[in-house]
Structures are given as C-alpha cells and as structure tokens.
Specification:
435 residues, 2 domains, 13 helices, binds aspartic acid
Length: 435
C-alpha cells in the first residue's frame, strides 16, 4: 500500500485536482491520500491557510470576516464548478465554518479547516472515505506526536478501503483541534504511512524532488536522486524547503522509504529518501542556508567550571521566549544562536540585564543579522579537507566565517555567515563542492 500526500499547489484548483486523480488512479496501491489546503495558483495568489489565519485574527479583534471569508469560499466553489460537482453538500459545511470562526473558534481550528474542507471535497469527488484526524492524531504542546496516535489510526483504518485524509492537524491532549507548524501536512502523511504500514510514502509537490541547492540561486541545479533520512533532516533544518523536517521521525521508526515527486511531471523519478545509501562518488547531497538568527555571546571567567550554569542560563532564557538552536562553548564563553523572531529588542534587553545580574556575567551581547549555511552529506567526515575547501571558497568571496561546526554531526558541517552574505556563500560553496 502506498500513502500519497499532495501539497497545496497540487490542490490549488480543479485542474490540479484532476491531475491528482490521474496520478492516484494510475497505481491501485495508492490507497490513502493526505491533502493540504488549496495553495497558491500563481505567484501573488494567497494560500487558503493564510486567509483562514487572517479570518481568525479579524474575529479575535471583533472585526467582520466576511470579505476574507468570501475569498475562501470562492476558492472552494471554483473547484467544485471546475470539477462539475454539485455544491449542495458543501455550502452548509462552509457556512458552519464561517459561523464558528466568527464565534471565536481560534487560529488552530480556523487554519485546520483549509485541509478539512479540501479533504471533504476531494473525498466526495473521488468517492473515497473521509478520515477525520482530530481525536486520532494527538499532538503534544511542543508539537510532538503522542504514541497513542498510532493505535487510534490503526483501529480506524480498514485495509480494504480507500481514504482521503486532511493534513496539518490533530487534537491536543484536551481534545481541542491543534495544527502542526506550517507545512505540517507532510507530518500527517508520515504518521499515516506508519500507522497504515505503507510500503512507500509518496510526497507530491510542485518540483521534481529535493534539489542539491536552491534552483532559484543556481541555474541547472540538480535533483538529488537518493538521500538518507538524516540528510533530508539536516538539509531541511538549514532551510531547504521541500520536505518538513519533523516529518521524518514517524517514517524512520518504520523504515518507510519516501519518494518526493512532482504532480506536474509525474513520470520524473523524484528523490528517494531512505535509511542508508552508498557513497557512489557522492559524499555530499546539498548545501542550503537559513537566515534570521541572532547571536548571544556570554563571557564569564571560569564559566565551564560552574556546574549546571548552562542549564540554568537556558532555563531563564526560555522564560523570555528564547530557545537557542546552535551552541558553541569556549573556556570562558558560550555562544548561542537563536531565531531573531523569538523575542523583540525590548525583551532581549530585559533578558540580558537579568542574566547578567543573576549569573554575575562579565559580559553579555546580542547581535542580529546572522545566517547558518549547512553543507550536508552522509560521507562528509570521510574527507577532512572539506573544511579547507569551505574556508578557501568563502575567503575568495571575502565572506567572514562567524563559526564553523565540523564534527558535531556525522552528516553536516555548519558555517555561520552574515545574513547579507547568505546567497553568495551558498552559491560559492555549491560551485566548489558540487558543480
Ligand atoms: N496548509 C498548511 C500550510 O499552508 C499546511 C500544509 O500545507 O502542509 O502551512
């Protein structure tokens, strides 16, 4: 049995949904389909999910949602028309959604309706069963999936039936609808693949796989034919868009291969994501970068001698909403990188003052405008000269390295650069390492 997940651009309009049907009909092992909410039809279009978040915000401010909700309703009715479906079953559902959002259902519930409505529509069109994920997929506050989920889904899935499943949401421990982070339908697909015992998890999108570098930056960028779970996680962790980094955990547990494919070019082989691969002359798979980081630098004499101080510092930082993602430790210093969006200037000032006083720090500084470039490959540590190649290439471009993290992962090397130099750094590294 194959589980297929189709992303928002694959469901953006009736023509795309017809492509989905053709793909699914072409292989009878494709028995479960997870859908995203309709995405953008063109560059400056809006995703249904964004419109729904907007409605929830308006409702929260006590403002009317009609204008925005009309746009949402129009997306679905255009799809119904385009597929020549009668709309009488759907209009009352749309109306219930509008009323609930107006009544203060909140952002999680509102956003989840993009997938919910899409799945109900597609299930009707295909004549397949709709499988509700609220109450079955249980999401903890930190976004992780409760193990009970697999029993709930296992009990609900009948191998003789075909299902359309809404992506992106489940419920929290209190039974309220809760969404994953953005792009989270990939996670639903992975969960359903594990629960249903899929032989393959096909992840259908609008590009022919995972690229070794952002194709908008480099002409002729190549699709990676085969990569490991770890490689895709590390590449997604430094910004490569195609596959949600949290969607890997459920499939790793069951060793299910993932095939990332293109709805608009279904015959392309796409990228296979598997447990292990051979080097075959390709020690690396890709380079990517993520900006929007701030650097927090702490100095204190004998810092690493004081037991428990790191943990205590991080606990206090969490009170201010700051959770570091990368760390470097010196003899008398600690450097942490965190997402700048986590805290405003004012909150950071308050946090620094508090940390300095509480832990008698010699100094504490925060600086925004950092990016992290990741060079990823399962065989990266087989070739120690890579560090030299990286630093020479960046030096040639006059890009300063703010940190270099080699050896803490067997699958990647991370390089800190100024945010303003991100693209230049990625292109330079691509050319020396891959071209
Ligand atoms: N519709 C949600 C989003 O736009 C989830 C998804 O597409 O995977 O983020």
């Amino acid at each position: 049995m194959i589980v297929c997940k189709f992303g928002g651009s694959s469901l953006a309009d009736a023509i795309q949904i017809e492509k989905v049907k053709t793909i699914v009909d072409a292989d009878e092992r494709r028995k479960i389909v997870i859908v995203s909410a309709p995405g953008k039809r063109s560059r400056d279009d809006e995703k249904v999910t964004d419109l729904l978040y907007r409605c929830a915000r308006l409702a929260d401010e006590g403002k009317p949602i009609d204008t925005v909700f009309t746009q949402i309703a129009a997306r679905y009715t255009a799809i119904l028309d385009g597929l020549a479906m009668e709309s009488s079953f759907f209009l009352p559902i749309l109306d219930e959604v509008r009323q609930a959002i107006e009544g203060g259902a909140g952002p999680h519930w509102a956003a989840s309706r993009g997938e919910h409505l899409c799945a109900r529509l597609v299930a009707h069109y295909f004549g397949w069963h709709f499988l509700e994920t609220a109450g079955r997929i249980i999401i903890a506050d930190d976004g992780t999936v409760d193990e009970a989920t697999y029993d709930h889904l296992g009990d609900a899935l009948d191998p003789a039936k075909r299902y359309i499943v809404p992506g992106f949401y489940g419920s929290n421990a209190q039974g309220r609808v809760q969404t994953f982070s953005r792009g989270g339908s990939d996670i639903t697909g992975a969960i359903i693949s594990r629960a249903g015992g899929a032989e393959v998890y096909e992840n259908w999108t609008d590009v022919s796989g995972v690229y070794s570098v952002d194709p908008r930056l480099v002409d002729g960028a190549k699709v990676i034919a085969r990569m490991t779970y770890r490689e895709v996680r590390e590449l997604a962790g430094v910004g490569a868009g195609v596959f949600h980094e949290e969607a890997i955990a459920p499939v790793i547990a069951a060793s299910i291969p993932i095939n990332v494919k293109n709805t608009n070019a279904p015959l392309d082989e796409g990228t296979w994501i598997v447990e292990k691969r051979d080097c075959n002359g390709h020690p690396l798979v890709g380079v990517s970068a993520k900006g929007g980081y701030s650097r927090l630098t702490i100095h204190k004499l004998m810092l690493l001698k004081s037991t428990g101080i790191r943990h205590a510092l991080m606990t206090m930082m969490r009170v201010f909403g700051v959770r570091p993602v990368f760390s470097l430790f010196g003899i008398d210093s600690i450097v942490w990188f965190f997402e700048s969006s986590q805290a405003s200037e004012g909150v950071l000032q308050a946090m620094c003052a508090r940390l300095k006083a509480e832990f008698a720090l010699d100094s504490i500084e925060v600086e925004s405008g950092h990016a992290v470039v990741g060079v990823v490959g399962a065989f990266i540590n087989d070739n120690p000269s890579i560090v030299g190649t990286i630093s020479t290439a960046l030096e040639r471009e006059k890009i300063a390295i703010t940190f270099l993290n080699y050896g803490s992962s067997t699958t990647s090397t991370l390089i800190g650069v100024a945010e303003s130099a991100t693209q230049q750094a990625v292109v330079a590294l691509y050319h020396v390492l891959f071209a």
